[in-house]
Design a protein that fits this description.
Two copies of one chain form a homodimer. Chain A is an all-alpha fold and about 200 residues long. Chain A has helices spanning about 5-25, 30-40, 45-50, 55-75, 85-95, 100-120, 120-130, 130-145, 155-175, 180-195. Chain A is built from ten helices and no strands. The interface of A and B includes residues 166 and 170 of A. Chain A binds a DNA duplex (30 and 30 nucleotides) through helix 3.
DNA sequence: GCTATCGCAATACAACTGACCTGTAAACGA
DNA sequence: TCGTTTACAGGTCAGTTGTATTGCGATAGC
């Protein structure tokens, strides 16, 4: 066996270079040569790890979704004691908004993928696959809150869950466009939660 | 003076050809040659009407926003009698969702522009300019409803207006991704309105 | 009829794109 | 030591991109 290299580690490095470019210029502005230069490697090396550009895009999308999920998990996991459903929801929603530079970059990349996904079957499957789990997690919290009497009995958890997801996504767009400051978006989320919880 | 031609009419024709391509392949998939072919004209003629590609994009964005506003205006204007604030809001929101093929195309193009706008100062100005007016229109309806006792007194019209806009935008994304069917999105809007109006 | 101007076609061009294809060095097992 | 496999650098290629240039026909005022 010849020289051994951690393939996954290299691929992650390349994906992160791709994000840096995509968050500045969009996915279509990221050529293989640009990504290679940003990662500090040659075009040949990049192609050694990703046979086609499409492979690279799909891998990078999977990686960024994974990181976002882990970030949310870490934030929720670090909550003290036994957090209420409302707290869980609020912290998750807040982590989904582009409030700091890192998550702003992440959201910019996600949006870039979203646009491609609308026209690209393969990316669409990836983009859609996380939604049901998130929706179910939200619905479960609302169900718990209903049992505790914190949410009115006539609210449908699944409906409210999808409303929350859609709201955050819409707000995200406006924060990225600088129509809303981040704190204002968070205030709007809280206002919505005020109505959901009694 | 030589032959006179209606420049604006030609430009509109070209813009519409651009939309057809952009809604299928995205804005970056629309080269000048593609657009010219779709419009049934030569590349030379297209360049005669738009000196640069950027000029074409900016013009087409202005045109599509104008058409969307006109569509909403027509729908709202055709409401019988003296429509209630809730009816006005619901019909406007419904028209903003991509429920039929035409508005789906329109939304796909808007999204394509949105992504560019995040990175492009000139487009961002255009993309943002319609929001305040829409927000104020929504807020005005909610204010009217509060006076009529149809919305609780402690609701802030401006907050609720922005929540509505963001919600529809988030839902639009998921409809375009085929995560939600159109009717489901409309049902979610109605559910949200049920909570806003007493 | 002359000519300036407009409308448009055709072509050219330099830059860039992703995919592919070599050549080579290094590491390991036999 | 040899052969095989992996890691990478560099170059090539055909195709596409936006823009610039040139030329020519039609039309209107003089």
């Amino acid at each position: 066996m010849p020289k051994r290299v951690d393939h996954d580690e290299r691929r992650h490095r390349i994906a992160e270079a791709l994000w840096r470019i995509a968050s500045e210029r969009g996915l279509d502005g990221a050529s293989l040569r640009d990504v290679a230069a940003e990662a500090g490697i040659s075009l040949g090396q990049l192609q050694h790890y990703f046979r086609t550009k499409d492979d690279m895009l799909v891998f990078a999308l999977g990686h960024i979704s994974e990181l976002a999920a882990r970030r949310i998990g870490a934030r929720v996991g670090s909550l003290a004691g036994d957090p209420s459903p409302r707290t869980l929801l609020r912290e998750t929603l807040a982590e989904m908004l582009p409030l700091d530079d890192k998550s702003r970059t992440g959201q910019l990349v996600q949006i870039a993928y979203f646009v491609r996904a609308v026209h690209d079957e393969r990316l669409r499957r990836h983009a859609k696959e996380g939604i049901p789990a998130l929706r179910e997690f939200f619905a479960a919290q609302i169900r718990r809150a209903k049992e505790g009497g914190d949410v009115a009995a006539d609210r449908d958890p699944d409906t409210e869950a999808m409303l929350l997801i859609s709201l955050v996504d819409g707000l995200t767009g406006y924060v990225l466009l600088d129509v809303l400051p981040g704190e204002e978006a968070l205030r709007l989320v809280d206002a919505h939660l005020d109505r959901l919880f009694t």
